[in-house]
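Tutorial handout. Part one gives the primary structure; part two gives the three-dimensional structure as tokens.
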Amino acid sequence: MVSVTKYNGEVLRILLPDKINLKIVEAEAAVKGDTASGATKKAKLETGLEIQVPLFIKDNEVIIVSTSDGKYSRRA
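Part two.
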């Protein structure tokens, strides 16, 4: 849900939720190696946005993304 504030037909403010659920449509294969440092891989979301996600995330999973910075937050 998005909140839009208008005055005389002009948009004054748009409020987005803090986090939104988005589906992974394409994720790179996980690469074996050092995972102690929080290894990540690239994934493409249903909106076309590409973000870094943990190695355990797979195609067609729904994740929670922060709208303030566009980063992975957690699984949905």
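Part three, for discussion. The mean pLDDT is 90. Residues 8 and 70 are 31 Å apart (CA to CA).
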